[in-house]
Predict the 3D structure of the following.
Amino acid sequence: MTEADKPPRTGGWTKLVTARPRLSLLAALVLTVLAVLAGSGVADRMGAGGWEDPDAESTYATKALEREFPDSQPNLLLLVDAGSASVDDPAVTAEAERLTERLSGEQGVTGVGSYWATGAPALRAEDGHEALIAARITGDEKEMGKTLDRLAPSFRGAHGPVEVTIGGPVAVRHEMQTIIQEDLTRAELIALPVTLVLLVMVFGSAVAALLPLGIGIVAILGTNAVLRGLTEFTDVSVFAMNLTTALGLGLAIDYALFIVRRFREELSAGADPSTAVGTTLRTAGRTVLFSALTVAVSLAAMLLFPQYFLRSFAYAGIAVVLLAAAAALILLPAALVLLGERVDSWDLRRLFRRERPAREGAAWARTATLVMRRAPFFALGTTAVLVLLGLPFLGVRFGTADDRQLPSTAESHVVQQHIRDGFPGSPGGGLEVLAEGRASEAQYAAYKERIAELPEVLRVDGPLVHGESAYFTVQPKGEAVDDAAQRLVGELRSTDAPFDTSVTGTAAVLVDSKDAIAEQLPWALAFIVIVTLLLVFLLTGSVLIPIQAVVLNALSLTAMFGAVVWVFQDGHLSGPLGFTSPGSIETTLPVLMFCVAFGLSMDYGVFLLSRIKEEYDTTGDHTEAVRHGLQRTGGLITAAAVILAVVMVAIGTSRVTNTKMLGLGIALAVVMDAMIVRSLLVPAVMRLTGRATWWAPGPLRRFHERFGLSEGGENPPRGAGNGATSHDVPADENGEGMADASGGIRAIR
């Protein structure tokens, strides 16, 4: 008996996960129940901020002002509407003063001021019918939210001659957090049944369709428990919950599809369930593990950024990826051993149509043949289209998340819109300049005069002095975070002063956030690229394939970035999609979307490359390996992409613009990657590079032989293998390697 004819060996991992399948599933059930208990209420412990750099000048100034001047930064605004009367009407004034006095006496509220107490023009609408009461709610985000919940019912609504609505940063964050939780529940209710229907269409069997869904639910619940634990030690953004749901379902379904598909192939080839599971784990299981590592690497890059908004997505993403892979590699094999042939039970497709025999993947094989026959046309054409779709991103303008993330009917959005449209300057959105060090009144006055002369300044208030510290409030002429306000931040920081100064405020936070991202972005990209190159090399043993994977993955994201600017910044389709365009893109969103979409793109890339590599190791025929790889995985990748896109679109139905952008943008990236890049660009480029695709220098080839991973299993390859050169296998008239007659092409039915 030759080595190739021996039955596959059962590895230790296979024995571990299949020896007691019922016990494995029971343990998983117990752990899932514990995860439900541990993760309950996780959303209530999360924050709705996290866009600022904790080490930035603006953050330092904000904390210093909170410490030295706790009344300096109002975060609660009550918009008092006098209707047709003037805000200076005696009855309106009396009621407004009563409201101001009541608010001053509330616990957890400080720094209460109003137009009627100060006469400040910035607190009075230009038409004279509205004015503001400003205050500061103290405490962290959770404490502020509780205080707002307590205050809002008694202050909101009609009070004699006036109508009060509630706004300000604390109201915006709290309303955003509430809406995200509601929208996430709705997204899950949409995604789960639609996903189940699609899985039934893919598998036919209702039993097989339920397996990926179960793996996804386990991953989501487990991640919620992990995030709940993390909230005890660090800040976690509530936005990360959306990624947990999307990746939990999407990746679990991807991994389960790949494993169940391979298991069914082995059963069809005559293997018994235990043997089929063993082969599946040695082949598809390795690919799943590799895929999870590549996705986790992309998400881990967000840990390099200081903003806890981005770090939160890394926490959630890494946890859900690893849990999805673990469930797919431990629980799913146990279930498959128990089910055996019954995995094909309840074939619901027979209720609607008669099953027609067809050669599996024939359409994808024809597509691969056509693409490789016209490889230059498809390579250049698809690249040109992708670059063209990405051109709008060249006009991107970065901004900050504000009330316009909320629906136009949201109370805090309505208040802030009234302020933008009807009030002079930008109440609540000014810049604060903290002055530290002993100074005289004359020095303060001279510094104030220099600030007032800056071209972007509308008005300077202050200074308020406490000990050796003082602060000035600077109102910009335009909006709080427009280009002029950002320029003003730099001008204030470069203005000479006889004391130490630091600048904070909305525009300053944005400037510092952009600087922090620009500083860390090269390191994050380098981390993703280097580790991805290494992982793909370990999978393929090729020098060229990892480079192709990185470049083509990046190309697959161009449509997403172009659409984000064209739709969400420029406002096209804002009506049908139901959002208000702020005219900019929140600074951290492109980083987040790149890391997530690049990881998912690598997920599909690994699925395709692993099957191509397996076939090439078997036959040594490069062209046939590419054709076979697309034939075997094209339908699988497309089905997985469509299902993941459905989940992301469900997330994209959110009423919060950032979440809508995240969901719809990544859905577009996933579809473009699976249907354009994997189906057209990858086979075209691999055909053009030919046998050189698999080249590696001797030292690297030996390194891969020792440490590399592949789907080839434990039996030695029968073809050219890693790093084959032109003399390893006979070549046909086109220079392509011919199949080894003794090895043949392994048919998997």
Notes: Confidence is low (pLDDT under 50) at residues 1-10, 352-358, 711-749. The first helix runs from residue 12 to 18. The two ends are 24 Å apart (CA to CA).
